[in-house]
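Field reference: sequence -> structure
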Amino acid sequence: MKLKSLSILAGAIALSLTAIPFSANAKPVQQLAQAQQQPAVAPPPQIQLNKKQQDQVRVINAEVRKQIEGVLTKPQREQLKKSLQARRDPQGITQDLKLTPDQGRRLQQIVAGSQKKIFETVLTPQQQNQIRQYYQSQSRQNPGGRPR
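Structure field:
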């Protein structure tokens, strides 16, 4: 459980610190991490963001980057930069950073908050419904547990 949380966190850090082509896909970080770990899961819905939405997401991600950098120590920030340049996988990035439990919790809160903010303030009601329906269908396919 702890390793999975940290790998999701590392994926979130990697995604928030790199340029993401938002017009192609907007997938919550948890979905991306799960897709990397278990490719048998059906892909999430493809959400097309308009220019205004892309700009809003960029602003939110810039805020997230600043918050994440505020949690990491200087050596960790340097290591994160190296790991991202080396295109390390999320689990590798997490191992490289050697996060304390407190840092891990704080980063998870930052990422969860940014995902919620994007969901609530950037996505249209129709886009939100697409994502909700996807999660509902996944929970019906795998009752009582995490998506496969």
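Note: The CA atoms of residues 82 and 88 lie 9 Å apart.
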